[in-house]
C-alpha cells in the first residue's frame, strides 16, 4: 500500500509546502545498494580498531579522518564507526561527545553510524560497566536526533569475538539495514566455526525453509535468501497453493503446501527432510492477527493466534533440533513483533504470542548452541503489507509516523535483517531480538 504523505513530501512542491508550514519531511529510504557506506569516518581506539580497518580494506571502503573541535571539516561522509570498546571510565565518554559534536553535521543523508562497545556483563569493574552501559543512551538518542534517514546502532563485541564482527558491520553499514535504528546487538563467541565466506552468495549450497512464504514479508524473505544463494522451500496453507507455487517458481525453490498448525505438520516437514536433506536456515514467518479487546475476543480467536504464531514454531523448532533437521552452522529465525515487546490495544492474543516467541528464542538459543545452531528473532514495527493494509486509516497513519524515520518499513527490510541473522558468518549473534521498526516509539 502506498504511503501518500511520503510521496507528497518527497515531491518538489510537497517539499516546499511541508517546509513552509513546518511539517515533518521524512526522506524516502534508500535500499538499492548492497555495498558499505563509503567513505566512513573511523574514530576511537579500542581493541576492535585493527579488525575494523581489515574489514574496510577487504571491502574497498575509504576511511576519512574525524574532524576535531580544533580542526573542523565540512566534507560529507556516508558513515561513521566509533570504537568505544576500551572506554573504561566516565571521563572517556567525553571523547564521544567531542566526536559526535564535531562530526554530526558531516554525516550525509542516509548515513550509517555504528558505535562498538564491550557489553556491561563483560566489564571488569564498576566504572567501566557504567561507561559501557551509558553508550546505549547515547546511541538511542543519536538515532532519534540525527534524522535525514540516518541510522545509529550499538554493537557490543565480547572479548574474544573481535574476529566475528564482519557480517554485522557489513549489514549495519549498508542500505540493507535502512529501517533498523537505535538497536543494541551483542556479539559473543560464535556457536560455530566461521567458514570461508562467499560474500556475494553467502547461502550458496544451503537449504532454507520459510513459512508463510506466498506473500508479504514471507515472500520477500524467500526472495532475499534465494538472492543469497539458498534453495528455499516455501511453506504456506493449502488454500494459498496458487500463490505459493508462483512464489516458489519465482525464487527457484520448492513449494510445500502445509498448514503449520495441522496435527501432522511436523511429520510432513520431517518427511520432506528425509527425501531432500536437512535445513540450514529455518524462518518462522507465518503469522495471523485476530484483533479484539479481550472482553470481546472469542476463544477461537485467542487459540488460533497462539497456535499459528507460537505453538507451531515451538513444535517445529524442537522437533527439527531433536531430529537433526537443522545442520550444524544452522540458523533458526523467528518473526516476533513490537506488539510482543510493548503490548497493543486489541491485540492481547497477538502480543501474547509474539512475546512468547521472544521467550522461545531466549530459552532455545543456549540449547541449540550445543548443536552449533543459533536462534534469533526479528521484531518488525509497522511494515507495509496486506496485514497492515487492514488497519483502520488513522491508526495506520499513526503506526507509520511514530518512529524516528517517520515512515513504515517494507517487507524487504525485515527480509534483509533475517538474511543477516541467517548468514554463515553470524554465529556470534544468538538468543537476540532485533527490532525492524525505524526506532518505533512503541516499547522503546
Ligand atoms: N506487517 C507488519 O507490519 C508486521 C509487523 C510485525 C510482525 N509481523 C509479522 O510478520 C509475519 C508476516 O506478516 P505479513 O504482514 O507478511 O502477513 P501476511 O498476512 O501478509 O502473510 C502471512 C502469511 O502466513 C501464512 N499463514 C498464516 N497461517 C498459516 C498457517 N497456519 N500455516 C502456514 N502458513 C500460514 C498466510 O497464508 C500468509 O501467506 C507475521 O508473523 C506477522 O505477525 C508483521
UniProtKB/TrEMBL annotation:
Keywords: Oxidoreductase. Its EC number is 1.1.1.100. The keyword Oxidoreductase applies. It is an enzyme of class 1 (oxidoreductase). This is 3-oxoacyl-ACP reductase.
Amino acid at each position: 500500500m502506498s504511503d501518500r504523505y511520503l510521496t507528497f513530501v518527497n515531491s518538489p512542491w510537497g517539499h516546499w509546502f511541508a517546509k513552509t508550514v513546518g511539517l515533518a519531511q521524512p526522506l524516502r529510504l534508500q535500499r538499492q545498494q548492497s555495498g558499505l557506506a563509503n567513505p566512513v569516518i573511523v574514530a576511537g581506539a579500542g581493541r576492535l580498531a585493527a579488525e575494523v580497518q581489515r574489514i574496510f580494506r577487504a571491502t574497498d571502503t575509504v576511511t576519512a579522518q574525524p574532524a576535531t573541535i580544533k580542526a573542523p571539516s565540512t566534507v560529507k561522509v556516508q558513515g561513521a564507526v566509533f570504537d568505544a570498546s576500551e572506554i573504561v571510565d566516565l571521563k572517556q565518554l567525553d571523547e564521544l561527545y567531542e566526536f559526535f559534536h564535531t562530526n554530526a553535521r558531516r554525516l550525509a543523508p542516509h548515513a550509517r553510524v555504528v558505535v562498538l562497545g564491550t557489553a556491561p556483563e563483560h566489564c571488569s569493574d564498576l566504572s567501566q560497566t557504567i561507561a559501557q552501559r551509558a553508550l546505549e543512551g547515547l546511541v538511542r538518542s543519536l538515532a532519534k536526533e540525527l534524522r535525514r534517514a540516518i541510522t545509529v546502532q550499538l554493537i557490543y563485541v565480547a572479548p574474544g569475538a573481535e574476529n566475528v564482527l564482519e557480517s554485522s558491520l557489513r549489514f549495519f553499514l549498508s542500505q540493507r539495514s535502512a529501517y533498523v535504528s537505535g538497536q543494541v546487538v551483542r556479539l559473543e563467541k560464535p556457536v560455530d566455526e566461521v567458514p570461508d565466506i562467499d560474500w556475494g552468495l553467502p547461502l550458496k549450497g544451503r537449504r532454507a525453509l520459510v513459512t508463510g512464504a506466498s506473500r508479504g514479508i514471507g515472500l520477500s524473505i524467500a526472495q532475499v535468501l534465494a538472492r543469497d544463494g539458498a534453495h528455499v522451500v516455501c511453506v504456506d496453507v493449502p488454500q494459498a497453493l496458487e500463490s505459493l507455487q508462483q512464489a516458489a517458481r519465482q525464487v527457484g525453490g520448492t513449494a510445500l503446501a502445509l498448514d503449520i498448525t495441522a496435527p501432522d505438520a511436523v511429520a510432513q516437514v520431517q518427511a520432506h527432510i528425509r527425501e531432500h536433506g536437512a535445513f540450514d536456515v529455518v524462518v518462522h514467518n507465518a503469522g495471523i492477527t485476530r484483533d479484539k479487546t479481550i472482553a470481546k475476543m472469542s476463544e477461537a480467536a485467542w487459540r488460533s493466534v497462539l497456535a499459528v504464531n507460537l505453538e507451531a514454531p515451538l513444535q517445529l523448532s524442537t522437533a527439527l533440533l531433536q531430529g537433526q533437521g537443522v545442520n550444524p552452522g544452522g540458523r533458526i529465525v523467528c518473526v516476533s513483533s513490537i506488539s510482543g515487546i510493548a503490548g497493543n490495544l486489541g491485540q492481547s492474543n497477538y502480543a501474547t504470542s509474539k512475546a512468547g516467541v521472544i521467550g522461545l528464542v531466549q530459552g532455545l538459543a543456549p540449547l541449540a548452541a550445543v548443536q552449533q545452531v543459533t536462534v534469533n528473532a526479528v521484531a518488525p514495527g509497522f511494515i507495509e503489507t496486506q496485514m497492515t493494509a487492514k488497519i483502520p486509516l488513522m491508526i495506520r497513519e499513526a503506526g507509520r509516523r511514530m518512529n524516528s524515520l517517520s515512515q513504515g518499513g517494507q517487507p524487504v527490510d525485515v527480509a534483509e535483517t533475517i538474511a543477516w541473522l541467517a548468514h554463515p558468518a553470524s554465529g556470534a549473534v544468538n538468543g537476540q531480538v532485533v527490532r525492524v521498526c525505524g526506532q518505533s516509539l512503541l516499547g522503546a
